[in-house]
Amino acid sequence: MTYQTEEEQVEKLKELWRRHGVPLLTGAALALAGVIGWNTWNANQETRAANASALYQSMLESVLEEGSEEARTRGAELAEQLRSEYPRTRYAQFAGMLQARLAVDAGDFAAAESLLREVLDNTSDKAQAEVVRQRLARVLAEQERAEEGLALFNDSVTGQLLSGREEVRGDLLQRLGRIDEARDAYRAAIRAVEDPRARPQLQLKLDDLAEEA
Q1: Taking the model in full, what pTM does it have?
Q2: CB atoms within 10 A of CB 83
């Protein structure tokens, strides 16, 4: 009886395998493929990040270290390559900011505005967004659009970011001839910085307005 029971069990196992063996194998194969695919994707992401980092480093070296016009041109080309090949990385955003700075140096404020707006639209980092807004406000002011620049500052910030913002606001307000408001902005910038001696230009700007008052 025991033998029959064991034999029946073997037959049941064989029957289960005939019915479900292929699906089980397929499921295992799919699971294995999923693991391999995930690992491959992670490896590709790491490779892309490393390549983007190396390209970014080369861009910085070209622009900041050599200082020649040829090096700056090469840096701009590398920045464009970064933005084209790695558009969803932080490196692409930094490259856009650097390109904007080069455009400002060349007096091409329209190009700088376009680049900064693109970075602003694509960044989720609040600190970076604030820095970009401050640069964009200055670019707009250079295009006689200081009021538009002031309108960029709607949310709240603190610390060094607030100090930088209030300095930019002061500069724009001064351009517009709103001296009392500019003076208040410079005072706010001084209050926001931990050590005012670290940013002596703020006191100088305030003193210049005091002389005009």
Answers
A1: 0.72
A2: 20
Q: What is the dihedral of CA 60, 61, 62, 63, to 10 degrees?
A: 50
Nearest-Å Rg of the Cα atoms of the chain is 30
Q: What is the mean pLDDT of residues 139-152?
A: 97
Report the distance separating Cα 126 and Cα 157, nearest Å. Answer: 9
Collect all residues with Cβ–Cβ distance below 8 Å to 128 and sequence separation of at least 6: 93, 119
Which ranges of 123-175 does DSSP label H, i.e. alpha helix?
126-142, 146-150, 159-175
Phi/psi for 142 (5° steps) reads -65, -20
pLDDT at 73: 81
Dist. CA 75–CA 61, nearest whole Å: 8
Q: Taking residues 187-193, report their average pLDDT.
A: 92
**Structure tokens that stand for 101 in this block:** 């700075």
| 22/5 Cα distance (integer angstroms) | 26
In angstroms, the Cα distances linking 38 to 33, 52, 57, 203, 212 are: 8, 21, 29, 56, 66
15-38 pLDDT per residue, tens: 655 665 556 555 555 665 666 665
